[in-house]
Amino acid sequence: MIQGEPAVPLLLELVVTDRASGLYPRARIVDDSGAQIGSPVDLVEAVAFTGLYQGLWPSPLAGDYSAAFEVYTDAGFTTLSDHEPGLEHVRIRDPAVDLADAAVDAIWDEVLTGHLTDQTAGRALFAAGGMAGLYIRDDAVTYDVNDRPIKVRRRWFATAAAAAASTPGGTGEGEVLTIEGDATHISPTKWQSFLRKTP
Predict the structure, then answer these.
(1) Alpha carbon of residue 102 to chain centroid
(2) Most confidently modeled of 22-36, 95-109, 154-168?
(3) Where is average pLDDT lowest: 22-36, 64-78, 125-139?
(4) Which residues are CB-contacts of 92 (< 8 A; sequence separation ≥ 6)?
(5) Contacts of 77 (CB under 8 A, 6+ apart)
(6) Which pLDDT belongs to residue 194?
(7) Burial (0-12, 13-18, 19+ Cβ within 10 Å), 150
(8) Do the beta carbons of residue 163 and residue 169 sit within 8 Å?
(9) Looking at the predicted structure, is the pLDDT value of residue 5 above 70?
(10) Average pLDDT for residues 53-57, to the nearest whole number?
(11) What is the pLDDT of residues 145-162, one digit of tens each?
(12) Does 2-98 carry CATH code 1.10.10.10?
C-alpha cells in the first residue's frame, strides 16, 4: 500500500518485470466506485535504475484509491505493451485528523484503572474482565443466623498479585471496583437468588 497526505505530491513507481527501458507507463487513480480521479499520472524512466518508472500524483485527495498501472510502447499512449498491468492500493490521510498506528496501539494498551468513570468503555471492559475471573475476589460481607451469606461482593484488582494478597472481608486493599449484592434462600443450604447492586 502507498500512503500519503492530502495536497502533498505522491510518488508512484513501477518496475516492469523484464527491466525493459524505453516504455511509457502511466497510472490511473480510481476510487472505490471505479471512477477515475483527475488525469492519468505519466511515469518516466529513472536515470540510475533501468526498468524503474516514476511519476508524481501532484495533489492527492483524502481517501482510499487504487493506482492502476498500464504500460505503453509509445509516447502517445496508444499501443499497450505486453507487460502485465499493475495495481497498487493508495491511502491518503490527513495527519491532523487521522490517528497514527502508534496512537491506536496506545489506546488499546491504555491502563484501565484510570478510566473507570461510570458508563464509560473503560469501566465496562474492566468489569467484563472481572466477570471472566480476572483479578477478582468474591466473598461474603454479612451472614444470617444460620451462617448463610446474605450480603456478598465482588472486588476487582489491577493485578493478579493484588487480588491474591487481598483478604476475605477486607477493605482498602487496592480494589479498583466493588460490586455488592443481596442473596435470598429457599432452604438452609440453597440460594434462591442473587441481586446485584449498582457498584
Answers:
(1) 10
(2) 22-36
(3) 125-139
(4) 3, 4, 5, 6, 10, 60, 61, 62, 63, 64, 65
(5) 24, 26, 40, 42, 70
(6) 57
(7) middle
(8) no
(9) yes
(10) 96
(11) 878 888 888 888 878 888
(12) no
Q: Is 100 in a helix, a strand, or coil?
A: coil
Would you say the C-alpha torsion 109, 115, 121, 123 has a positive or negative sign?
positive
Distances (CA, A) of 94 to 4, 83, 153, 183: 8, 35, 48, 55
Q: Are strands 24-30 and 41-42 parallel, antiparallel or unpaired?
A: antiparallel
Residue 199 pLDDT > 70? no
What's the whole-number average pLDDT of the chain?
A: 84
Q: Is the pLDDT of residue 112 over 70?
A: no
Look at phi and psi of residue 51 and say left if phi exceeds 0, alpha if psi is from -120 to 50, else beta. left
Count CA atoms closer than 13 A to 188's CA, side-chain side: 3
Strand 175-185 with 149-157, pairing: antiparallel
What residue ranges do the domains of the chain occupy? 2-98, 105-196
Give CA–CA dist 149/140, Å, rounded.
6
Task: Provide the pLDDT for residue 13.
Answer: 94
Dihedral of the CA atoms 98, 102, 103, 104 (nearest 10)?
Answer: 80
For 198, which DSSP code?
Answer: P
